[in-house]
């Protein structure tokens, strides 16, 4: 008996020891052996598929040779602490592609799903974002049904087709599925169903009734295209959350349908954003008894807000509400916590009655409205967490009472008119701040960043200052240490540390969590700031544009796979691009190194396989463009190599540009012909090859593209006729080449906005097809050999802003129909054979109000990174500005005798009229004096007569006025002295006379060259001085109709009488003094008397004889 007891005790002791060993194994991370082997098999599959580094990929997944190794401690693996079985596998994005970069799959992971059958206790499996395809179905997805505890499966963001639907039907244990499919009726136990971002239509809605316990349904971003599906949804009586956003719903349910909707007694949250309901939808939804959250953002709602007293979250962003803020409705919201009325048309101030929302309100957004006035009422919302007042018209100082909002986590007052200084006390008291944006206001003075030093929770700081009166100081007090760890920092255009020689902020050395840094436009100095990258391993975007960094580009010590965006443009970076840049920044998607002093080859760039946009313009790169740049980078969409020293036949042979949408090769030394396009699909939207040495003809593929296209081939050696085709050109510039023949009338001009055919060898007349240019803004066909009359149908070009017809052989008169082009601002008809008079109605040449010429031809590539989790979903959208997509218009025009090119937004400001070098006659219309916005007026080298209109003194913006080489007469109006903008004035070689205007204001800058060829002019700056006889009175100034040759009769009679009196007195004086001449004068009188007597006597005799006969 004793032995039996001892034996029994030993047995129990052995059992307990075994359990203890097993528990220790669990505590030390032990796991089931077959599951450990399965995990290692998954790792091997990935390494073999993507050629990954064995040491760096999943470094914790190591086979140490022991049985039951510590795989529960491995990354991405979660085990049951009791049994040791794997329960959760998070295998999302195993390749490590940055998830903000949607570049597509380079290769497919041939995963054998059967490997997961070893995980008997698995409850959650995430395989999203892994470049899986239908092979996952073929390798036994249906067999996962043996995993009876599997409740969550995520297969989103892969390349799996419809074949997966039948396999998923076997997974009856699922509760959460992140994938859209049709056979939902097979999954009766589903509680959460996410079908977003698919192409499902209304036919799928009918099958939802087979999911009796469904609690959450996300059908967003599908196509319903019908009225609100009340009948189908009313059967889901357990539904608590419903998302039908962006499903193209419209209208409003009827009263009966609204009654049925009340069956959803458990529905707490409904999102209907991005649909087209009318305002009565709110009253219909008020029948939902448990509704707490209502999202009707991005719609067309207007009118008054209804009283929904039980609502906690009301989102009405981006609708058509207007008027003042609905304060009365606010008083009915007794439980409201979140209110978003942003992006509407509200005006006026925020009344103090907004305190009715207190104490429940936590989040308020009035952003993107037209609010102004006082914001003191917001100080009463003591429990506020988030406040967004951005993009309104608030002004004045920030109220000091804001420092009482001690719970405030998010504060955005950007894009207003706030002035004064930023009080440090206000910032110091808001210690709960996590997100702050003070951008684009009118603050002045200096602000010390150390005011944020005690803000432990601070994550996002945005200051886009762009204000020379504001300075950001980061180095005082010396040695201050931040208690925060930022995720995003934007200090753009803030005059950073101007008194401290513009150094990089020192507090950044203590930051380790930054994902986005923007220090652009600050004149910062020093070497390439490697420390910013090395210290922040999660850094995604580094923007140091427009500073004064020098030295070379040096690589960090380790690989930074998260960096997708690097902008070092407009600095003073030297030397070459490192050859191993692809090793340290393997997933770089946006690279901008433009406007530096870089040189050498660009071959290393071709190894950046994930590039989407590349700008290397305005440097000194040389050599040829590597072919791998077009073949190795399959996702490259934007390439700008402008203004370098690159050469070679980059466009010769068979062309295939993959996914290129924009290609800029201008201002290099490229040669050769443009080759043939071999790809069936084309994404190309813009191509700039101007200012190179390309030869040959334009290939036909350029004229046969299906999408809207912009082509700039200016200043090459291209020739021949331009090929006909269907391409809907919106921008076509082939000027300064050798194209010949008539202007092609077989092109698609319907989308044309800018047409430049100048400086070629085109002949014939302006084609009739030009009457159908409904959207054209610029028409430049100057410097060709065109002839005929200027057609009257140009009046049909109602949007025309610039008309260039110079240096052709046009004849006839200027059609008065041109006066009906009310938006035209530049007309150049110089150098033709146009005759007749100048139409007085050309006074319509004005400066249009609406700008149409872009200041920067840019493409905005944007990555939306949510660096801060908030109720308002505030995210900072980082923008990479590339001067690629959309061409800048360029026009040559003569101003101040200089024939120059003007480009981009300056064309919106230019107003000019050039009719020089023609055969125009008659007088200058005085109506041209009404062109108060004109900058340049050139009427030289014609046959104009008359005077210079005094009304020209009204041309207050005139900078260049050329009336030389005509037949103008009269004086130069002294009133022209009032023209303070006049920089060039030329009236040489006319018939002008009289005294010149005084040497005052701008006229003090004009030399004698402005007046030469007018011999009757006098006064400075001419050497000829004015005398009393040389000054001719000009009466043309009174009414503007008197002629220079009309005589002042009072002056004439007075001067004549005085002359005769002087003469007679002198004559009498001579006779009185000299007796000899007195005697001779009396003899002469006597002789004349006798002669006259005998003449009369003889005449009387002859008449008497004749009468008698």
Automatic annotation (TrEMBL):
Domain of life: Eukaryota
SUPFAM superfamilies for this protein: L domain-like
Presence of the UniProt keyword Oxidoreductase in the record: no
Signal peptide (residue range): 1-29
Keywords of this entry: Cell membrane, Glycoprotein, Leucine-rich repeat, Membrane, Repeat, Signal, Transmembrane, Transmembrane helix
The keyword Glycoprotein belongs to this UniProt entry's keyword annotation: yes
Gene Ontology, cellular component aspect: plasma membrane
A Pfam entry, by short name: LRRNT_2
Domain Leucine-rich repeat-containing N-terminal plant-type, first and last residues per copy: 33-80
Principal subcellular localisation of the protein: membrane
Residue stretches spanning the membrane: 1052-1073
Classification via PANTHER family: RECEPTOR-LIKE PROTEIN 12, RECEPTOR-LIKE PROTEIN 14
Protein name: Leucine-rich repeat-containing protein
């Amino acid at each position: 008996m004793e032995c039996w007891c001892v034996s029994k005790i030993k047995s129990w002791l052995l059992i307990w020891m075994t359990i203890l060993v097993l528990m220790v194994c669990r505590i030390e991370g032990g796991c089931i052996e077959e599951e450990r082997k399965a995990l290692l098999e998954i790792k091997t599959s990935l390494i073999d598929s993507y050629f990954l580094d064995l040491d760096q990929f999943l470094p914790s997944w190591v086979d140490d040779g022991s049985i039951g190794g510590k795989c529960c401690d491995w990354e991405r693996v979660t085990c049951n602490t009791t049994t040791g079985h794997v329960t959760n596998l998070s295998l999302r994005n195993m390749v490590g592609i940055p998830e903000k970069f949607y570049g597509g799959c380079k290769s497919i992971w041939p995963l054998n799903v059967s490997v997961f059958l070893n995980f008997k206790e698995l409850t959650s499996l995430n395989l999203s974002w892994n470049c899986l395809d239908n092979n996952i179905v073929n390798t036994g997805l249906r067999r996962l049904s043996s995993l009876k505890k599997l409740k969550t499966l995520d297969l989103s963001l892969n390349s799996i087709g419809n074949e997966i639907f039948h396999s998923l039907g076997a997974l009856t244990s699922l509760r959460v599925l992140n994938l859209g499919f049709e056979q939902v009726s097979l999954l009766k136990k589903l509680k959460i169903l996410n079908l977003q971002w698919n192409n499902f239509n209304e036919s799928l809605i009918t099958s939802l009734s087979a999911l009796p316990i469904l609690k959450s349904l996300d059908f967003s971003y599908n196509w319903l295209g019908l009225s609100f599906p009340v009948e189908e949804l009313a059967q889901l009586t357990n539904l608590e959350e419903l998302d039908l956003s962006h499903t193209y719903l419209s209208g409003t349910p009827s009263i009966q349908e609204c009654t049925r909707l009340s069956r959803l007694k458990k529905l707490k949250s409904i999102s209907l954003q991005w649909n087209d309901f009318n305002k009565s939808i709110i009253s219909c939804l008020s029948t939902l008894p448990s509704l707490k959250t209502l999202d009707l953002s991005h719609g067309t709602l207007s009118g008054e807000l209804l009283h929904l007293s039980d609502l906690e979250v009301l989102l009405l962003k981006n609708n058509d509400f207007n008027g003042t803020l609905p304060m009365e409705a606010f008083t009915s919201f007794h439980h409201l916590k979140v209110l978003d009325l942003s992006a509407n048309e509200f005006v006026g101030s925020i009344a103090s009655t907004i305190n009715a929302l207190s104490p429940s309100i936590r989040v308020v957004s009035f952003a993107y409205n037209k609010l102004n006035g006082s914001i003191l009422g917001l100080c009463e919302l003591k429990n506020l967490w988030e406040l967004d007042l951005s993009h309104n018209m608030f002004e004045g100082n920030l109220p000091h009472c804001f420092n009482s909002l001690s719970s405030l986590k998010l504060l955005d007052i950007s894009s207003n008119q706030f002035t004064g200084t930023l009080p440090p006390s206000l910032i110091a008291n808001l210690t709960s701040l996590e997100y702050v944006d003070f951008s684009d206001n009118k603050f002045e003075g200096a602000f010390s960043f150390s005011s944020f030093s005690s803000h432990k929770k601070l994550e996002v700081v945005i200051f886009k200052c762009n204000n020379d009166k504001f300075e950001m100081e980061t180095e005082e007090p010396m040695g201050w240490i931040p208690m925060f760890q930022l995720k995003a920092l934007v200090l753009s255009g803030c005059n950073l540390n101007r008194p401290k020689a513009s150094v990089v902020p020192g507090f950044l050395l203590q930051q380790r969590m930054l994902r986005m840094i923007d220090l652009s436009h600050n004149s910062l100095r020093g070497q390439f700031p490697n420390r910013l990258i090395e210290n922040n391993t999660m850094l995604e975007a580094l923007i140091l544009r427009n500073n004064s960094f020098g030295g070379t580009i040096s690589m960090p010590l380790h690989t930074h796979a998260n960096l997708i965006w690097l902008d070092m443009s407009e600095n003073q970076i030297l030397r070459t691009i490192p050859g191993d840049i692809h090793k340290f920044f393997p997933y770089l998607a946006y690279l901008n190194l433009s406007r530096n002093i870089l040189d050498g080859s660009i071959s290393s760039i071709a190894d950046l396989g994930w590039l989407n946009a590349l700008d290397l313009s305005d440097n000194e790169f040389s050599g040829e463009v590597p072919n791998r740049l077009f073949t190795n980078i399959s996702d490259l969409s934007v390439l700008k190599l402008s203004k370098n020293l690159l050469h070679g036949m980059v466009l010769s042979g068979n062309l295939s540009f993959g996914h290129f949408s924009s290609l800029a090769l201008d201002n290099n030394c490229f040669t050769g012909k443009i080759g043939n396009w071999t790809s069936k699909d084309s994404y190309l939207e813009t191509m700039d090859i101007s200012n190179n040495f390309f030869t040959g003809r334009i290939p036909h593929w350029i004229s046969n593209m299906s999408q809207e296209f912009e082509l700039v081939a200016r200043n090459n050696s291209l020739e021949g006729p331009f090929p006909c085709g269907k391409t809907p050109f919106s921008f076509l510039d082939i000027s300064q080449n050798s194209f010949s023949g008539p202007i092609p009338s077989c092109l698609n001009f319907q989308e044309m906005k800018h047409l430049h055919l100048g400086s070629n060898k085109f002949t014939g007349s302006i084609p009739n097809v030009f009457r159908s240019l409904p959207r054209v803004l610029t028409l430049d066909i100057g410097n060709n050999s065109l002839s005929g009359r200027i057609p009257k149908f140009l009046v049909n070009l109602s949007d025309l802003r610039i008309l260039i017809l110079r240096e052709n052989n046009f004849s006839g008169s200027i059609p008065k129909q041109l006066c009906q082009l009310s938006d035209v601002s530049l007309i150049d008809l110089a150098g033709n054979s146009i005759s007749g008079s100048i139409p007085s109605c050309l006074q319509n040449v004005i400066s249009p109000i609406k700008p149409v010429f872009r200041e920067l031809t840019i493409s905005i590539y944007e990555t939306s990174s949510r660096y801060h989790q908030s109720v308002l979903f505030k995210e900072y959208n980082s923008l990479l500005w590339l001067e690629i997509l959309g061409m800048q218009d360029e026009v040559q025009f003569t101003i101040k005798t200089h024939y120059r090119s003007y480009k981009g937004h300056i064309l919106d400001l230019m107003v000019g009229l050039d009719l020089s070098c023609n055969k125009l006659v008659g007088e200058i219309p005085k109506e041209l004096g009404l062109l108060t916005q004109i900058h340049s007026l050139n009427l030289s080298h014609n046959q104009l007569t008359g005077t210079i209109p005094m009304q020209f003194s009204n041309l207050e913006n005139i900078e260049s006025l050329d009336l030389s080489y005509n037949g103008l007469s009269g004086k130069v109006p002294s009133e022209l002295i009032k023209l303070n903008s006049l920089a060039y004035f030329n009236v040489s070689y006319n018939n002008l006379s009289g005294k010149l205007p005084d040497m005052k204001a701008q006229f003090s800058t004009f030399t004698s060259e402005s007046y030469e060829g007018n011999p009757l002019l006098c006064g400075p700056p001419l050497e000829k001085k004015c005398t009393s006889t040389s000054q001719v009175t000009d009466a043309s100034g009174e009414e503007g109709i008197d002629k220079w040759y009309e005589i002042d009769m009072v002056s004439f009679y007075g001067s004549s009488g005085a002359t005769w009196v002087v003469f007679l007195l002198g004559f009498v004086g001579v006779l009185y003094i000299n007796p000899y001449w007195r005697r001779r004068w009396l003899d002469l009188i006597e002789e004349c008397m006798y002669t006259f007597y005998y003449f009369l006597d003889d005449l009387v005799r002859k008449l008497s004889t004749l009468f008698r006969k």
